[in-house]
Write a structure and sequence with these properties.
By secondary structure, the chain is α/β, with parallel strands linked by helices. It is built from nine helices and eleven strands. The longest helix is centred in the N-terminal third of the chain and has 21 residues.
Length: 287
């Protein structure tokens, strides 16, 4: 039976660190502020947004949700981001995903000012991560790593499989694991037999957005399993939030992140820390 990784406890430690950094900034007379930009409405993202707002309020980080209509054009969204980049009272910007089909996220992420990109998704920040000199690390990838490290797993030489290769989660966590000398295999929709890889892995990280994708017969006994998926399903007339890992994996894995309560709270805590560090890199504080 897997031991559940307590994301809330890990997040609490990171929040305390962020709180100290925010207080140090306030002592210098500056206050972090964060604007979350959402285009349309995605029910599965609502939990993350509510956590953002509550957490920012606790740390006295100014927080605003900028809600744009679902039919917003790519040009209009880029104009809004340019405006936020120029606003001196905005020190951090997060672009909520998913975006409507008429908007190319790769194009829009390029418009985010790197020093305000608190999710670390601008190509400059991703390039810094790839080069081994990270600045602002993507929050979910950093959160997944924190959850892994909490288990005590020795990553040096460990066989790790990342299922999912998005630019904001899958690829960054693979890079972070390689930096710690894990042997990393990345699976995606082109992989012919995902199970043949996951069955041999000491560590499996899943970030796809498909409920129940990873089942118990795909996991090695005692493996660490990090479930990043957030999916809404209907069961017995109720709407439930579940991950990408099937419930029966708990009978095989050694460690497992629950959904909710696993990677999610840690991701929000990483966002707070990045928001503080983004401000510390801006203007007269940068030196």
């Amino acid at each position: 039976m897997a031991q559940l990784i307590d994301g809330k406890a890990i997040a609490a430690g990171i929040r305390r660190e962020a709180e100290r950094e925010v207080q140090a900034l306030r002592n210098l007379g500056v206050v972090p502020s964060l604007v979350a930009v959402e285009v349309g409405h995605d029910a599965a993202s609502e939990l993350y947004l509510r956590r953002q707002e509550r957490s920012c309020q606790r740390l006295e980080i100014a927080y605003q949700r900028l809600r744009l209509p679902a039919d917003t054009t790519e040009v209009a969204l880029r104009r809004e981001i340019g405006h936020l980049n120029r606003r001196e009272d905005v020190t951090g910007v997060i672009l909520q995903v998913p975006l409507p089909s008429q908007i190319n996220p790769r194009v829009v992420r390029r418009d985010l000012a790197p020093e305000k990109d608190v999710e670390g998704v601008n190509p400059q920040n991703l390039g810094s991560l790839l080069s081994g000199h990270p600045s602002l690390v993507p929050c979910t990838a950093a959160a997944a790593l924190a959850c892994i490290e909490s288990t005590g797993l020795d990553l040096r030489g460990a066989d790790a499989v990342v299922v999912g290769h998005s630019e904001t989660v899958g690829k960054p966590i693979a890079i972070l694991l390689m930096e710690r000398l894990a042997t990393v295999t990345t699976c995606h929709h082109g992989t012919r037999d995902v199970a043949s890889h996951t069955r041999c892995a000491d560590l499996v990280v899943v970030a796809v957005g498909r409920p129940g994708l990873i089942t118990a017969d795909m996991i090695k006994d005692g493996a660490v399993v990090i479930d990043i998926g957030i999916n809404e399903i209907e069961r017995d007339g109720e709407t439930l939030v579940v991950g990408d890992v099937a419930p029966n994996v708990v009978n095989v894995a050694g460690w497992l992140t629950p959904v909710p309560g696993g990677v999610g709270p840690v991701t929000v805590a990483m966002l707070l820390r990045n928001t503080a560090r983004a401000l510390a890199r801006q203007g007269p504080l940068a030196g």
